[in-house]
Amino acid sequence: MQKCIPLFLLGVKLMEKKHSIFDEEYVRKQLQALLKIDSPTGYTSKVADYIISELTDMGYTPSLKNKGSVICTIDGDGTPLLLAAHIDTLGGIVSEIKPDGHLRITSIGTLYATSIEGENCRVHTRSGKVYTGFFQMIDPSLHINTNLQNQARDFSNMEIILDEKVYSENDTRALGVRVGDFVGFEQRTVFTESGYIKSRFLDDTVSLSLLLLLAKKIASGDVSTKRKLYLYFSAYEEVGHGAISSIPEDTVEVLDLDIGCIGTETTASETCVSICAKDMFGPYNYEMTSKLIETAEAENIPYSIDIYPFYTSDADSALLSGADIKHALIGPGVCATHGYERTHMDSLLNTFRLLIGYIS
Ligand SMILES: [Zn+2]
Question: Does 7 score more than 80 pLDDT?
Fold first, then answer.
């Protein structure tokens, strides 16, 4: 395992002014950069390279694992804590080039077709070309297809129409497009004056931005911890086996940062940090979860405790790998998860405050 310890940090005491250490401008800058990178599961090398570059610039020596995840060690004592977030997002993959040159796709992860109807997209060929297009119903003109409004929306009756003059399968093949090419959808990232962040794939880009902020704050000495930390940026979370490999052997705790889910059955909000007590894989570790709640209470951090019935996480994957660890999950509350998502910068602030409070 490579170590990355900015030497000037050794021996520095933990944390001060937890509220003021949040750097909204930096987080916004990272979100803007990260959300521009198409990174559906299986096509994450560019976002991994970006994270490695950012961490390297801070003085760390992150390593890229065979599976595509990135791990960075911040050396220290105490019980090693692994902080996880996932670099992969939802997306699509070409499953058929049709006789008319249009593309059938299947989803990567639980992307639902209705949420991307009419959306712009990019098809990434294996030769490195990128073609734009948009995702539509077959026969999408309402003036022609009078049944359009009544038709179900799914990947069997929707397709990508490329922004190229292609009229046949051969035309599209001549571009270099093939079955198996990855498709990224327009993120449509918007930061409102009132602090809201709207975008596709806030899951889990919000957490990536917070882990990078943490790394930056530790590197600059604004935050210090004696505790040994692993920053783990997983690939393949959206298909269920993200952090199932490469968990360092001495890891005792895994704190997963992923989105909180806002719904009628949860108390999560776009301004709180959400602490997940149980997901479809089962309850999270009692001791860790209790400590997170106690920390939020002690630090006056707005939080919610939630159950996510249709949710799994990298912390679950770590357990599935056979790792003997304690696990917990926190994250910013996000509205319309796996669709066009929204959260508020306050939720990122409060997640970061709880993260800092916990590692201290
Ligand atoms: Zn996620």
Answer: no
